[in-house]
Amino acid sequence: MTIRSIFIALLILLTTSACRNKKGDAPKTTVSEAKKRLEVVNRALVDKDRERIEAYISRHRLEGMEENKSGLYYLVWGDPNGPKVQTGDIVVINYKVSMLDGTELINTEKEKPLEFLVGKGGVEAGLEMAVLLMQQGQKGKFILPPHLGHGLLGDHDRIPPMAVLVFDVELLLVIES
Q: Which pTM was predicted?
């Protein structure tokens, strides 16, 4: 059984058990109990994602990769040739997004570089965190667990639900605010 199917089954169970109690039904679950159960499920999903990410790091010998408090895994390298990214800056990046199994989902080198305003959303939360760790001219590899990428639903196009994403990023330009 996959993590996704376990999560869906638990979600259905919690939803149905939280419904109004009728004669002969199981006792009604309080909102507090339902929240606690969801927290347990969420912790299990985060732990499973962490195991998969750490196996990927080991398999690819990504020595020096670190994890921040939000769960973003990162490794940045290269000599900077410009400023460090700050919230409010506009950045231009080339990036490739792939799954842990190597399936390529997005590659801006085949399309066009991405330009965005840091701190205003519009991109994955993990990607914003990633560029804030970089300076112009640097490259990085970032692994985003689902909660920092596209979450439970994916993007309904190229990114599947509950996907752990690997971003290979090249920071081309920082336009300071």
A: 0.82
